[in-house]
Write a structure and sequence with these properties.
Structural class: alpha/beta
Transmembrane segments: 176-202
Helix content: 25-40%
CATH architecture of the largest domain: Alpha-Beta Complex
Number of helices: 11
Domain Enoyl reductase (ER): 12-351
Distance between the termini: 15 Å
Number of domains: 2
Number of strands: 17
Pfam family, one: ADH_zinc_N
Shape: globular
CATH topology of the largest domain: Quinone Oxidoreductase, Chain A, domain 1
GO molecular function, one term: oxidoreductase activity
Strand content: 15-25%
Keywords: Membrane, Transmembrane, Transmembrane helix
Order of helices and strands: EEEHEHEEEEEHHEHEHEHEHEHEHEHE
CATH superfamily of the largest domain: Medium-chain alcohol dehydrogenases, catalytic domain
Largest sheet: 7 strands, mixed
């Protein structure tokens, strides 16, 4: 039976517990007519996986494979002619279901269900195989390795919606400020915004991460640990456009307070997460400047297709921080979670499960 990795229940309170990883076996799941079986070649971590292990994410379910990001090869198809066309194809998997194309949010009455670790969607990519509807697949970009392709789905989709859809400012010459550079979403946002000709600036608590971001196309960066970084950022902006048009943020915290000092009147904060705190303060300065705070989640099936197409057209590559190999390598996989826990990563953390031909890594 195919193997997968899930979390194992131990005693502990949410936020204090850290559930251990557990190798499980799953029953063979033959594909229905419009389904295929994907041999997973690589899977990648996201912050939600870290939160699941802390029991800080809704719907935590033990025995459901972890992870939403994955790439692989179609090794078995259902009986329909449409499914058979996918035989042998390299694919990336849409990381969530229940949201087809509505720009405002998921259409499904049950809401949006992300893959990995919850009862909402009992499929996860940290598995040898995944049986899934063909409607949830896109061909993997040909210029990407399996490891790079696995780093794309959730991160790319989240960055795409926050930057290219919700910010309204992914345009040539606009000034876009991306906080917390080093995480997968922030780095994809940098690649997307730079690819359309925006002036991208970043923040980090690490000078090394700022330097690496510049190599990827950022015009400049500031260390948020330094007092008065806002003035330093404004001094970097072009003379013909002296304020920031949009902020892409996944931290929350004091982003409104700080953002009001650097944004133009009518500027946008596109918020795709709140890793610092589940609350933020709205102040009068933001009101007087007509600043818009726009929440941004992952994205629709249509936006997923748009994102993959753009990555293909622009020949973009997700940034990889570190890779470990093998389903049995629980110590190595735990090490990736440690990287995420302490914030040391620059890019995606990936587990290679099989080679490019689908041969499993032990």
């Amino acid at each position: 039976m195919p193997k997968a990795i899930a979390i194992r229940k131990i005693d502990g309170k949410p936020g204090q517990v850290y559930y251990p990883l557990d190798i499980i076996t799953q029953p063979e799941q033959p594909p229905k007519p419009n389904q295929v079986v994907v041999k997973i070649t690589a899977a990648a971590l996201n912050h939600r996986d870290h939160f699941l292990r802390q029991h800080l994410y809704p719907g935590v379910t033990f025995g459901v494979p972890l992870l939403a990001d994955g790439s692989g090869i179609v090794v078995q198809t259902g009986s329909s002619a449409e499914a058979k066309q996918w035989a042998g194809k390299r694919v990336v998997i849409n990381p969530g279901t229940g949201w087809h194309s509505d720009p405002d949010g998921p259409e499904a009455p049950t809401g949006y269900a992300i893959l990995g670790g919850t009862k909402a969607n009992p499929i996860g990519t940290l598995a040898e195989t995944v049986t899934i509807d063909i409607s949830e697949l896109e061909l993997a970009p040909t210029h990407l390795t399996s490891i790079e392709a696995a780093a794309l789905p959730l991160t790319g989709l989240t960055a795409w919606r926050a930057t290219m859809v919700k910010s309204g400012n992914a345009k040539p010459g606009r000034n876009i400020f991306i906080t917390g550079i080093g995480g997968g979403v922030a780095l994809m946002a940098l690649l997307f915004a730079s690819a359309v000709g925006a002036n991208v600036y970043v923040s980090s608590g690490s000078e090394d991460k700022i330097a690496k971001a510049k190599q990827l196309g950022a015009k400049g960066g500031v260390n948020y640990k330094e007092p008065g970084w806002e003035k330093k950022l404004l001094a970097m902006l072009p003379k013909e456009r002296k304020l920031v048009d949009a902020i892409i943020d996944g931290a929350g915290g004091d982003v409104v307070e700080k953002g009001a000092k650097i944004l133009k009147a009518g500027g946008v904060i596109s918020c795709y997460g709140m890793t610092v705190s589940p609350k933020m303060t709205w102040n009068m300065n933001a009101v007087l400047k007509n600043i818009e705070l726009r929440g941004s989640t992952m994205g629709s099936r249509k936006e997923f297709a748009d994102m993959v197409r753009f990555v293909n057209e622009k020949n973009l590559k997700p940034v990889i921080s570190r890779v470990v190999s093998g389903m049995e390598n629980l110590e190595g996989i735990d090490g990736l979670f440690e990287d995420m826990k302490n914030g040391s990563q620059f890019g995606k953390l990936v587990i290679e499960l099989a080679n490019e031909k689908g041969v499993s890594k032990l």
